[in-house]
User: What shape does this take?
Amino acid sequence: MADKEEPQPEHGFRFWPPHGIRIRTPRLELRLPDTALLDDLAAVSADGVHDPTEMPFSVPWTDGSPEERGRSTFQYQLGLIAEWRPERWAFGLAVMRGGKPVGLQELAAADFGVTREAETGSWLGLAHQNQGIGTEMRAAALHFAFERLGAHAVTSAAMTDNTRSLAVSRKLGYVPDGVKVIAVRGEARTLRRLRLDRERWEAHRTVPVEVAGWTQECRELFAA
Ligand SMILES: CC(C)(COP(=O)(O)OP(=O)(O)OC[C@H]1O[C@@H](n2cnc3c(N)ncnc32)[C@H](O)[C@@H]1OP(=O)(O)O)[C@@H](O)C(=O)NCCC(=O)NCCS
Assistant: This one.
């Protein structure tokens, strides 16, 4: 046994350094959830993410009972870490406001080391929508992607009727990048694709963002 103990990182996860990353905006802190926080985040999704007559997601994970929705959030987030590779990763961040989770902001990429492109996806609990949080958390993910990861472009996609998501993208400087028709619940739905390059991100940024806990080990895991 080693007689000198390895220093334990403050966040407690020696083998998963992204747990130490904190992205902060004036009102929010984004971080990878541990299982206790994930349980609370799952409860936010169980309480409802959108009107049940609508379906803003390509994968209709919000269909079903509150319990099913919460479980789906819990399992999906654990799966992201289980399947993480530098060539294909998805960083699912709990969005915290006043110390409590209010939603989820994801940033994902395939072959980021080559393409320098990542894509975002997000949701907020119903009680937290329409207060500018969606804009602030997307701005946080964009700052992280461009400033820390060295992204060249970040993309997003929203159903043609998702006015709020489209409004967030427009405010942050994204430009239209075509459409895509997909099958959701057996019906054809049209997704509007959006794209933001570094130049337009710089020209449209208004939210101050700070990143803490970024290390060389993180850089390797993200192929940044
Ligand atoms: C999409 C989502 C993350 C946006 O977050 P949010 O906090 O509600 O959005 P914000 O308050 O930051 O911004 C919404 C913008 O849409 C505008 N908006 C709201 N309702 C609108 C409407 N019916 N028509 C046009 N614009 C509208 C708001 O005015 C605001 O723009 P402004 O700041 O210029 O006034 C959130 O609404 C959500 O989780 N929705 C359900 C799940 C979802 O759709 N996820 C995204 C899938 S692509």
The two ends are 35 Å apart (CA to CA). The chain is about 30% helix and 30% strand.
